Structure formats: structure tokens, C-alpha cells
Amino acid sequence: MTRTETHERQGSAVSARWRIVGWIVLTTALALLAVTVTMRSVMSGQVAEAANVGVVQEIEEFRTFAAEGRDPRTALPFTSMGALMERYLARQQPLAGEEIVGVAGGTVLAARGVADDDGSILVGDAALVERILRDPKTAGVYESAHGTVRWGKAEAVAAGEPAGTPPERQAHLVVAQFTGAAQEEANRQAVMLFGVAAGGLALTAGIAWLVARQITRPIRTVRETAESITAHDLSARIPVEGRDDLAQLAETLNAMLDRVEASHLAQRHFIAEAREHLNEPQRRVAAALHELVDEDLPGAERARIACGAQRLIARMGRTLADLDVLAQSGNPGFVKPARVSVGEVTADVAAEASLPGTHPERYFRIEATGNADAWLDRNRIADAVRQLIENAVAHTKTGDTIRIGSSVADGSASFWVANPGPPLDPERARALLESYRSAEGSDPGMGLGLAVVKAVAEAHQGTAWVESGDGSGTRFGLSVPLEALAPASRQDDAFADRLATTLGEES
Fold first, then answer.
1. Which residues form a coiled coil (predicted)?
2. pLDDT digits over 100-140, tens only?
């Protein structure tokens, strides 16, 4: 029984464009709402503060007038509270929403203002006046039939009256501020501010939509480019515009696509190379085994066929080893450098190639030897030179002499193998050093071995090369820096040595 597990995709299904717009609008809306609520609260506080200031101011003015005022008929302090109140109220002009009334001897007098054309709000509401007069506090806030009222009161007695003066000899001033109209105006301004904020929010949403579209356009381009890439076509690239973060992202993705395409091509060539180098030996081994089952073959012929099959199998093994080297060449740690002698590496490889039975009917000689030490992977360099030797053996005839050499110049060490023969066409010589070229028309054994040489050279930060047409045959080789793979301290020492040598020569 097969069970298919389905994993739901996590995250939001809303597009990035809508999320950008949504967050911008939400943030702006919260900010505008906070501003509107704060402004309304401030304006309401200003209404209350203005009312309180008005009440306090009127109360202070009345107290001053009661203490210092003079009856114009006698030029003496007021002895009649009714006269005092009438005189004071006659001088007052209440503002809109303000009521000033005086109570003296049971009579309620009002200062005429503009509140409701006759200033009689308190005069017409005896219960409210009575409530204020009976309140033990000198100021307060009530909710009345006329809305919120902020009030204050003060009392005065006739000059010379002792404590405990009866009510008929007292006067009371009541100042009331009805804040309903002012609060309505504050509310109206808050509503207007809210409308302006709503319009600004709509404008912000429109701008956010356009900006989000501009921002997400490169993302859409990336998606469209990714959709256009197939297993057979990796050439699509993302257009790079500007120098911002998205442009840098596009450049990074293009670089990644370059690496993917190069890796894909290398993989295809790698497979083609393996097929080319393994198919033909495998076919010949199969043919040899088919011949061996023929019982009529003489013993000598049977031994010859078996030896040929063994050589083909060994060749297939070397091919697999070369392919393994190529597969590892891009990995960290492919080379393990150490300080070695260029001349010793050259001599060791030449001696190994000259051993009896290694390369029958070929002669080897050392053409030149480099006299210097270099930071190299001795085994990798030796393997590369062996590949060049195998290549030379495959393209020479019995009795030919193959030359092996090395040299040191301009901070680099070069290793080469030269064989006699007609010069190579320059284009063909260049093509031989491109990885995996033996799959199409190259001579067997050339492309793969030279690809290994090139991989070793590049791992040492060097290059592979070929020279042909100078009358001395064809030379294949590689050149690598002497100190490129040295530890940092060693590079500093080498630079100091070179500088000291140069200064010494100049002096």
C-alpha cells in the first residue's frame, strides 16, 4: 500500500504587492486615527480649560468689585447688595455660552449677553440655580438639560456687616459656562480632520499601490525568467536596471544561473566523455570475450585476446579514475600543497616513465629541469605530467623519443612533455585544452587526459598550454605560480626575499 503525503504550503496566499499596500495603509490609518483622536481630546480639553478660565476670571473680578466698589450715589462702599449686584451685572457682557447671574435678597438678576438673545438660561432654570447655591463647593461641573455646565460662585456681604449676616443682607454671583456649543464645534473640527485623514489615506493607498508595483516588478521579472528556464535552455537572464538592492539581487541570480548553466554543460560533457571513453573499450572487451568462447582457437591466439581484453579493462579503470579526478577538481581540498622541489618532481616522473615495461618501445629523456622550490601538491602535479606522457605515447610511434622538462621563470613553474611529429593546427591545439573535447572527433585519449591536466593547473591557480609548429614537435604543459598556495606568512617571507634580492642587485 502506497501512501502519498501532502504537505500544505505555509504562509500567506496574498501577493507581495497587496501585502505591501495593506501594511502601508494599515500603518498610516493607525497613525491618522491616533492623530485624530488626540486632536479631538486636545480640543475638548481646550474647551474645558477655556470655560474654567472664564469662570475663575469672572469670580475674581466680582470679588475685587465687592471689596473695592463704591456706590456712585454715596461714593461709599455698597450697603445694599441689590445695588451692588445691579451695578456689577450692568458692567458685564457675557460671551457666547456664558451666563452670569446674581442673587440678592431672593431676586435673581442676569447680565445680558448673546447666549440665547436674552441671557436667561439660568434665570429660567430656578432649580439649577438653587442646586448651585446649595452646593457646598465653590465650583463644579453638572450635566443639565442645557448640556454640560461648568460653574463657579462667590458671595458678598454689605460693608460693615458682622459674621452670620442673614441671607437677605448677602449677595451671590453665579458664573456658568455652557460648553455644549463649543464642544460641538470641536467635534465638527474633529470630523473635518477625520475626513481630511481619510482622503490622505486614500491618496496614500494609491501611491502605495504604484510604489509596490514598481518594487515588485523586478520580482515578477525574476519569476518570469525562472519560468522560462528549462532543462534544455538555461540561457535566460534577468535584466539588471539601477544599482539598488534589487539590482544586486538580479546580478547575484544571474551569476548563479551562469554557474548552474556551466555546471549543467560540464555535466553533459562529463557524461558524453565517459560514454566516449567507456563504450569503445566495453565493445571491444565484449568482442574479445565472444572470441574466447570459440573452442577452436589455438592457445597463443587465446592468450593474445585475453591480454588485449586485460589492457582494455585497465584502460577503462584509468578512465574511471580520470573521471573521478575531474569530478573532485572543483571541491575544496582537491589539492594539498607543500613546499617541494620542481626538479625532484620532474626527475621522479621521468624515472617512473623510463622503467622497463612501463612504456615499451618508447624512449624518454629530461630536456630541462627547473631549479626552485614551489608550493604544490606533488601528487596532483605528478598525475598531470603522467597524463601528458600517456598522451604523448598514444600519439607517437615505436622508437620515438619523448622529452620531459620543467623550468622556473617569472614566479611560475612550468612542466611539459614534448613529442616529435607534425605541428598541430592552432585551432585544434586550442580546442584540445578545452574540457571534454575528445567526445566529438578528437583522437581517443586526448580530451580526457588534457582535461585532467587543465583541472590540476587551475586548482593551482595556473594554466594548461600547448605549443606546436616551432620545428621541435608539440609540447603540452602546465604552468603554476610558485607561491600562490603558500600560507600567508610564507607569501610575506617570499615577497621580502624577492624585495631584498632586487635591492641587492640594484645596489
1. none
2. 888 887 788 888 765 444 557 777 888 888 898 889 898 99
